[in-house]
């Protein structure tokens, strides 16, 4: 599986495109917020001959879902997310204008994901791991074969997700990381929702929040 990250919107959110030799592609957390960013996403997909077959959200804070409507409509795919984050998603229209996103369009989920579900595309399978704490319905996507983890806002390079937003809880987040993520192999590459990639081993050794 190939992982390509595109950084979008004022929050510098990482949108990920996952694809393999079949050219089937999954878009995770599309944060594209304006016409130029949407065009950039569409151009990358077109230039690489990819076929978008799934739209996934790790969680539903505004910076991770701004492009949901665009991806859903452009590629005729339904949103897949964890049911516990539905209130997080439904809250966005009320506050989006205060962040300057006056043209936000809501897309509701077509499919709910749960712990240990498998998301399949092409020759690739992703395991769904439930990791609440940053958001109540946060999940991460684990490519066991390729040792890649799409981590959303749970674990960052030398940092962790914030827990001061509605539905956040520090102790829950730390438990999610230690019991769900740190049990994975140390050479698993971690692709976070913001900032550079890292590895599980690096964060076990170096992350100041998790010593």
Automatic annotation (TrEMBL):
UniProt cross-references to SUPFAM superfamilies, sorted A to Z: Metallo-hydrolase/oxidoreductase
The chain positions of domain Metallo-beta-lactamase read 12-194
Q: Which UniProt keywords apply?
A: Hydrolase, Metal-binding, Zinc
Swiss-Prot/TrEMBL cofactor(s): Zn(2+)
Tell me which InterPro entries the record gives: MBL_Glyoxalase_II, Metallo-B-lactamas, RibonucZ/Hydroxyglut_hydro
PANTHER family on file: HYDROXYACYLGLUTATHIONE HYDROLASE GLOC (PTHR46233)
Q: Which protein is depicted?
A: MBL fold metallo-hydrolase
What is the originating organism of this protein?
Answer: Adhaeribacter terrigena
């Amino acid at each position: 599986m190939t992982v390509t990250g595109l950084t979008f919107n004022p929050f510098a959110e990482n949108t990920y495109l996952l694809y393999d030799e079949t050219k089937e592609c999954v878009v995770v957390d599309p944060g594209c917020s304006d016409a130029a960013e949407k065009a950039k996403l569409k151009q990358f997909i077109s230039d690489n001959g990819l076929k978008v077959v799934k739209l996934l959200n790790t969680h539903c804070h505004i910076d991770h879902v701004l492009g949901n409507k665009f991806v859903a409509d452009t590629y005729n795919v339904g949103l897949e997310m964890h049911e516990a984050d539905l209130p997080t998603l439904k809250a966005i229209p009320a506050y989006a204008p205060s962040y300057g996103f006056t043209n936000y369009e809501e897309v509701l989920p077509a499919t709910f994901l749960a712990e240990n579900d498998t998301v399949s595309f092409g020759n690739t399978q992703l395991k769904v791991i439930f990791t609440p704490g940053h958001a109540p319905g946060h999940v991460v996507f684990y490519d066991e074969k390729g040792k890649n983890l799409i981590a959303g806002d749970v674990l960052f390079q030398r940092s962790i997700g914030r827990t001061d937003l509605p539905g956040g809880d520090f102790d829950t987040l730390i438990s999610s990381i230690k019991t769900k993520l740190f049990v994975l192999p140390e050479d698993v590459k971690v692709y976070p929702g913001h900032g550079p990639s890292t590895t599980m081993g690096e964060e076990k050794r170096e992350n100041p929040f998790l010593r």
